[in-house]
């Protein structure tokens, strides 16, 4: 249920300007949380955007070890995206210029004060 809600949230984020049924976009990817903390907010925005999009987790969270499918509208054209996560205290980590046309899975790590992302 949680994963369905997350998928619907992301799809609705990119549907606001479109009036036809959403199909898979080329930027779709799986996000895996291996940070050691629960993610309370997740923002994905085109790399050239000046602000973050809404929290696509909504009221849900992504626990350490969990994954979620991030789906884009089929008409989305942006290749490079920025990703921002926040913990329950609002501490944020950002990754920039992720080419989602070439990435199908992103595993987020945090260790010894350093954030990394493993991409496939």
Structure overview:
This protein has 120 residues and is mainly beta. The chain has a single domain (2-119), classed as Immunoglobulin-like (Sandwich). Helix content is 12%, strand content 37%. It is built from one helix and seven strands. The protein has one helix spanning 2-15, and strands at residues 29-34, 41-46, 67-70, 80-86, 92-99, 105-111, 114-119. The strands form two sheets. It has a four-stranded mixed sheet with strand order 3-1-6-7. A three-stranded antiparallel sheet has the order 2-4-5, with no helix packed on it. The longest helix is centred in the N-terminal third of the chain and has 14 residues, at 2-15. The relative contact order is 0.26.
Produce a short descriptive summary.
This protein has 120 residues and is mainly beta.
Key features?
3-stranded antiparallel sheet; Immunoglobulin-like; mainly beta; 120 residues; 4-stranded mixed sheet; 7 strands; 1 helix; 12% helix
Q: Per CATH, which architecture? A: Sandwich
Q: What oligomeric arrangement do these chains adopt? A: single chain
Name the CATH superfamily assignment: Domain of unknown function DUF5300
List the strand order in the largest sheet: 3-1-6-7
> Measured on Cα atoms, how large is the radius of gyration?
14 Å
Percent of residues in helices? 10-25%
General shape: globular
Instruction: Say what the CATH topology is.
Output: Immunoglobulin-like
CATH class: Mainly Beta
Major β-sheet, in short? 4 strands, mixed
Mean pLDDT: 85
- How are helices and strands ordered from N to C? HEEEEEEE
Structural class: mainly beta
The domain count comes to 1
Uncertain spans: 1-23
């Amino acid at each position: 249920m949680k994963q369905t809600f997350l998928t619907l949230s992301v799809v609705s984020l990119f549907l606001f300007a479109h009036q036809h049924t959403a199909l898979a976009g080329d930027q779709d990817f799986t996000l895996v949380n291996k940070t050691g903390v629960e993610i309370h907010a997740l923002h994905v925005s085109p790399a050239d955007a000046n602000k973050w999009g809404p929290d696509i987790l909504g009221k849900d969270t992504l626990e350490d070890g969990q994954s979620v499918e991030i789906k884009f509208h089929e008409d989305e054209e942006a290749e490079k995206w920025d990703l921002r996560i926040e913990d329950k205290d609002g501490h944020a980590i950002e990754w920039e210029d992720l080419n989602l046309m070439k990435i199908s899975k992103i595993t987020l790590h945090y260790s010894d004060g350093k954030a990394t992302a493993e991409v496939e």
